[in-house]
Amino acid sequence: MAEVRARPASIRSARAAAGGRPRAGEERGLWHRPALLNLLSDLLTLCAAVALGWALVVWFLSRPLFPLRELVVVTNPAQVTEEQLDYAARLAVQGNFFTVDLQAVKETFEKLPWVRKAEVRRRWPDALELRIEEHDAVAYWTVSESGDARLVNRQGEVFVAATNADLPQFDGPQGSSGWLLARYREFSSMLQPLGVRLVGLALSAREAWQLQLDNGMTIVLGREQDKSPLVERLQRFIAVWPGVHKEIDIEIRVADLRYPGGFALTPADASVLQQTVAPAGRKGKQ
Question: What DSSP designation does 134 have?
């Protein structure tokens, strides 16, 4: 009888053919998951709808349907002219009611000479509302290093503008305007008993102070000293000056207060210090 033996290669091929065909419950591909496909389809549809809606909104707002026709100035400017406001508005206002760049408009108005701050808002349906805070100049300012002429406002800020107002003159290093303003207010209050007005205040690079009064006198205070502070030296001068001035009855040009125990005076007319000396008589026989 003939013996039949199965070849290993045939057995492996049959097993491979049987194992290579997946069962219905074991299918894991994306295209075999209807729920996931539906979710992705919904998300893509939603994104497309949002993008289309945004594009339509941008297109609609960019149409000339909401033009800006008016600029309403809420505050009543004292220094800024109507021509300046009109020029800034024509330069900065671009677009319609919805697309106008309010920040750009604000910055343009704040570049005008007397404008300290500007606030811009939309006013429905076709206007912009403008509020302006102007600089309140309290002094002229000259930068010691460059000699540039500026103005100082009530907040101690330096700005560029032109005025003919009667203001005190500040001179000092760049960045010291706030310090000078504080000292000006302090010294002006102290000088009131003398009936004079402080019209000039100078600070040197070495932090030495000098005061100019409206009667023509210059008070040299010098630098701050631990043993003799500026305020104490000025108070001492103010206390004794009326009596000294009455006694000497001379117009004084400079009062130097840099000495810890007193002060030196320089008259406006130096000739008053010259003493007339009579010539010596000759002895002789008559």
Answer: E
Convert the pLDDT of each residue in 153-201 to its tens digit.
999 999 999 999 999 999 999 899 999 999 999 999 999 999 999 999 9
Return the structure tokens found at 274.
């010259």
pTM of the predicted model as reported, rounded to 2 decimal places = 0.71
- What string of H, E and C letters represents the secondary structure of 112-131? CCCEEEEEEEEECCCEEEEE
What is the spatial distance between Cα 217 and Cα 198, in angstroms, rounded to a whole number? 10
Nearest residue to 181 via CA among 197, 159, 211, 157: 157
**pLDDT tier at 283, thresholds 50, 70, 90:** very low
List Cβ neighbours of 142 (8 Å cut-off, separation of 6 or more).
148, 149, 150, 169, 170, 171
Choose among 257, 176, 166, 168: nearest CA to 210. 257
Question: Which residues pair with residue 137 across a beta bridge?
Answer: 153
